[in-house]
Amino acid sequence: MNIEILYDKLTELSANYVPKILLALLTLFIGFWIIKKIINLTKIGIQKTGVDETLAKFISSLVNIGLKVMLFLAVAGMFGVNTTSFIAIISALMVGVGMAMNGMLGHLVSGIMIMMFKPFKVGDLVKIGGHATVGTVHAINAFNTTLKTLDNQRVIISNSNVTGNDINNISGQGTVGVELTFGIGYSDNIQKAREIILAVGNNCPYILDNPEQMVVVSELGDSSVNLATRPFCNSEHYWDTLYFMQEEVKLEFDKHGIGIPFPTMDVNLVKQN
């Protein structure tokens, strides 16, 4: 008798909830698919208005979060959950979580500040103070900013850390000067060294003609005469220019007998009887 009652109960529960569960899973599957399409259309629509890619990604991330919350509320309603009470509970929880995790809200506010003041945009080469990593901005999300380094690593920095530190936007002006210093010996010919550096710069495929490259004596050091130059190139060729100049100048110095001083130490041995 008990088995029959249990069987009847299970049959009743299955009849009541299995269709709801299947419908909920189907709703989630279709809902996530629709949300993905909406996000893609949102990005395209925002970009067509002339808004840059950075803001488009940021708005899309917020829309994505909002739509998914609405989807989960709709699924909860299928099981008879009072969504009004549910929303009130979520709101209360959000207040409590917000007080406990005010750092997350700070990241969100910082993300909005980045959108407003635009210290950089997607595609810029930047260095964030406190982080030795230099990378290209890959995305600015609601809570963090993602950089892509030269060796293809992904660096994720919270937005509050971005706005709370110095931001060095290397490529923000479109062109950038590459700071270079070459040390030569005091016995070497300064004019000859200057001609070599300028000649290497003229042969570099990335250096721009305007502004014109110059070479000046920046310092009379303890063991070297330091020559400074700052050739300009397009921002995306910063590293190419830096590496080209350093290698080619060294090779040309070697060809012309111009030495690059390095620290040395004289050791005097005193013989004691």
Describe the overall structure.
There is one protein chain. The protein has three domains: 2-100, Helix Hairpins; 120-169, Roll (SH3 type barrels), CATH 2.30.30; 175-255, Alpha-Beta Plaits (2-Layer Sandwich), CATH 3.30.70. 53% of the residues lie in helices and 17% in strands. The protein contains seven helices and ten strands. Strand 1 (125-128) and strand 2 (134-140) form a beta hairpin. The chain is elongated and about 105 Å long.
Short description:
With 273 residues, this protein is an alpha+beta fold.
CATH architectural name of the largest domain: Orthogonal Bundle
* Derived structural class: alpha+beta
Helix proportion range? 40-55%
Largest sheet properties: 5 strands, antiparallel
Shape call = elongated
Total of domains: 3
What integer value in Å does the Rg equal?
31 Å
Give the integer mean of the pLDDT values: 79
* H/I helix tally: 7
Strand order of the largest sheet: 4-3-2-1-5
Query: How many DSSP-defined strands?
Result: 10
CATH uppermost class of the largest domain: Mainly Alpha
The CATH topology of the largest domain is given as Helix Hairpins
Low-confidence stretches: none
In N-to-C order, the SSE pattern is HHHHEEEEHEEEHEEEH
What fraction of the residues are assigned to beta strands by DSSP?
15-25%
Q: What is the first-to-last residue Cα distance?
A: 114 Å
Topology:
Layout: H1 2-48, H2 53-78, H3 83-100, H4 102-117, E1 125-128, E2 134-140, E3 144-149, E4 154-158, H5 159-163, E5 167-169, E6 175-177, E7 180-184, H6 190-203, E8 215-220, E9 225-229, E10 232-234, H7 238-255
